[in-house]
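W.,

You were right to be curious about this one. When I first looked at the sequence I had no strong expectations either way, so I just let the prediction run and decided to look at it fresh. Below is the sequence, 372 residues in total, followed by the output.
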Amino acid sequence: MVAMAASTYFFLNSFSYHDMTRNNLGGTPGPKDAHGIIKKNDGSPRSLLAKDLTKVNATEVRTNRASFLKPVMMLGQNKNYLDMIPDLGFGSMLSDGFVFRQNFQIKSYEVGSDQAVTTETLMNLLQETSLNHLKAIGVWGDGLGLTREMCKKNLIWVMSKLQVEVDRYPIWDDVIQIDTWKGAYRKIGMCSNWTFCDAKTGEMLLTASCIWLMMNEKTRRLSKFPDEVRSELDKHFTNTTLPVVARKWSPRDEMSIVDHVRNGIMPRWSDLDMNQHVNNVKYIGWILESVPLSIVKNYELASLTLEYRQECKMESVVQSHTYVMVSNNGKKGDYDHVDCKHALQLETGGGEIMKGWSIWRPKQYGNRLGLE
């Protein structure tokens, strides 16, 4: 009897919910006339469902949806500026077609324990907007940002160098505006550039630049930049690019570092991207695994420079090394910044997969929350 009563209650309430939803969207669809136009039950044309539901104005749907949601379910009530930001989640071309702009709202699963967006999320947004840029200018052919001519020649992009400078980390529910543009890198590759801004205030959050080279998908060797591919991209390149500065360590630096190692890192099948190699964002996650917890808890990444040396295969076992610059006889104190050097290498043979440098500063948002 209890089970039957519960089933009856759910059945009746589910009808009540769907009736409410149907009423908000304009009622039950009526029959169609000879031209396929949906009619109301009284024979008059429908005002809403006669339109393609995929083209319904977002504000219209949001208003209808909000009318039957409980107040406690409505998030971001103090974020009225969301309604004033056009094309949230979509992109548009600016500056005579050279700059691609896209807005994103930071989700709860994209932030860490201090509510600030994670480094991996920032890297994923760099990749996403760069690929969407290629789609927007109409040269995308297939795979991970491949042009049509690249597809014909079995060529794929590989990241060679990356530099990121973070002024402030976005937090959960922030909306960020990302601008990206591309330029030629000598005669062998392409340079991608990004700026992240707060969509409400215009505050600069991040700048980044990277260099892409081409690799033959079958031989897994670097390739020259074919003229056919260059002709596809040249008219979309701009001469305004952000420099990728290579960093070098002096012998004196090498004498004052402490090595922190994370062994036994193995790629998973889900770490492969559409080009069938370990995605560059995964490498960044691996190098952060060997950063000491004392740094991760109290500092945030302010600057990151990476150089990718070779591919990592599915069967590879990787070591992550973080070399922390120290003083006071090897004891790290309370500094306004911490310098680190990073390396990913194969456990067998010691071949270098990636090397990098990072600068860490005391946490900004986490400290304001009183997090330790």
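Here's what jumped out at me. The chain has a mean pLDDT of 74. And, maybe more interesting for your project: The radius of gyration is 26 Å.

Coffee later to discuss?

I.
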